[in-house]
Amino acid sequence: MTGQSTYPSASAIVVGGSIGGLTTALLLRDLGFHVDVFERTASPLDGRGSGIVLQPDTVRWFTERSSQDLADLHTATAYVQYLDPSGAVVHREPALWTYTSWGTFYRALLADFGTEHYHYGEFASGFDQDADSVTVRFVSGRTASADLVVFADGITSPAREYFDPEAKLAYSGYVGWRGTVALGSLDPATQEVLRDSITYTVIPHSHITMYPIPGEQSLDEADRLMNYVWYRNVPAGPQLSELLTDKRGFTGSVSVHPGQVQDRFVDELRAAARAQLAPAVADVVVATEQPYLQVLSDVRSSRMALGRAALIGDAACASRPHAAAGTAKAAADAWALAEALSTASGDIVSALAKWEPAQLQLSDSLLRRVVDMGERSQFRNTWTPGDPDLRFGLYGPGL
Amino acid sequence: MTGQSTYPSASAIVVGGSIGGLTTALLLRDLGFHVDVFERTASPLDGRGSGIVLQPDTVRWFTERSSQDLADLHTATAYVQYLDPSGAVVHREPALWTYTSWGTFYRALLADFGTEHYHYGEFASGFDQDADSVTVRFVSGRTASADLVVFADGITSPAREYFDPEAKLAYSGYVGWRGTVALGSLDPATQEVLRDSITYTVIPHSHITMYPIPGEQSLDEADRLMNYVWYRNVPAGPQLSELLTDKRGFTGSVSVHPGQVQDRFVDELRAAARAQLAPAVADVVVATEQPYLQVLSDVRSSRMALGRAALIGDAACASRPHAAAGTAKAAADAWALAEALSTASGDIVSALAKWEPAQLQLSDSLLRRVVDMGERSQFRNTWTPGDPDLRFGLYGPGL
Q: Taking every annotated instance into account, which residue ranges of this chain make up the domain 2,6-dihydroxypyridine 3-monooxygenase substrate binding (chains A, B) (predicted)?
């Protein structure tokens, strides 16, 4: 392992035990840190079926360090296609992309990290540091101290406010309707249209994209799920507030979970899908039992390093998923952090300061690109089928 | 009853079944409306023990219309006193004030309205109207239409955004720590100090006020509860965010409920009370099993009437409780609305338009006064014991 002996007696806390946090924890452990991961959810999260497009940074743990075979974790498609609302193919090109599901990938990373130092049900609400250590406070009453803390706790990270009090979520003007449907449950003709492609339908001020991801049980085609995001404009104000008010009367700031979206909005979604989207694409949306909502907002902290504390992934910078690069960005932050630490001769504060500028720049460039992609789709109506500038990628279109 | 025949075939929806909503519903029913009340909570709210200082508008239903005896609903004290941190009396004057508890008053109003048209567990998330009626949408999937809707759904009212999209909560810079303690559970000497007064302790950038309210069982002195609000400055930013993050990891925007405040903050509260407040006053704070938090913010809608929809009470304008006039304001809005309707010859839209200006003015004047009172206490250190400008009152100090 790289730098095994660099931090033999140092300790690290990782706040947030999802993909970015687990990747960080694994890399820090390889550097010799004693690592504890604190995850706010109370139990393992098998149910989260949403899809992840695999990018090189996302899978780097498996290609370079893990004994697990990456081939066991993903599905693939051979084409990118655009269907117009009638169902006609308006663009189709060969392009290999691979996908995983959040649950499949999470379980693989957790298998490598183990559960002994993975703590469920711990929500970090604040931290302090002095010259020698950092102490994280949890709402359970627990505190934990270490030489390094990495916050990988997502778009709602309470830690971000310590790094940049001015970094607030700015609503994009549209939401993502998301869902998954068993591919095998669809009409055979629909399955044939969708099974080997990323499929888009572009309509005025909107588009939808979908692709097949692994099911929770296996990679078999029989278990696969069609996973989609449909981007739809909703003006800020009462209309947005009502859409985000769930069946219990709670108003989501970043999402409304499966099963919690008000029935009237699910009914409207299904009717709109049938009226506006290609028939095969509409089939998937209409068949979704519990579609859910992601509020698309932009936020970027102007700092990612603060003494012995680092902010990574969506906690540091989150935006719209058009580049399919959010998970890759978190992994890239983690790898760069590990590399900075491995060459810092044990000086954590210097390593973080050295690590920060390139990651801020990467955040900034990704954010600008996905904002432009979103504006093209939702407001300028220039999302042109086949335009190479619209390809997925962390470092640039297709990169 | 006044104007019994004015609206014999009209219908009204009241959203929010707390004190302001029930007062409105009773007055509308007296005008002939068929009234339905929709309350978001799922069951009767016996547990809410917080205190209400009675003002003439608050009790007007009981003094003018109800067969219930107001004397059965309140306690009273004969003095206002200021104790310094040593416990010495620095000011004391005779001043009769009466108090109820939220639960006592709520149950009395509900007894008059009845439960047949009082619907629990219905959260209104939006509404629309045309020339003839207004339709309210609930997250349950239910809709309800009527000739008039009154939103009395409190400081977090989703309806406010329809009336004034710019009306946002503005944090005051301080929070209210609240709680109740059985008077009889306190040291006898402490009981004697507190039992017949409103008691204040003023310290730099802060003050606390407390008074005895009815218990949940009876008005007997043996059942009484000491009820308090301690105003403490907390800067916006990570410190406030952490304080408002509850034991489950949820962050309150307007309150953190009893039992949900993180233990470390309750511990700090008790230690600070002992160190900073008069001994008898500190006894109450220290003895509170589940102190809770109210975030003090100011918000005022620039409109209260929108066609057939009215916004009243905290839904329209909410601020700091220094004048003890929030409940009175809601009741005053309701009475003025009923009076406007009773002289409008059945024209609801005109009645609301005619009702609005004076209530906006009342909101504005109350808001300015309580903001000034709060600034005097928390930032200017000019909350002078005995200053008549600091008296409770909806229309002015002591009025």
A: 171-298
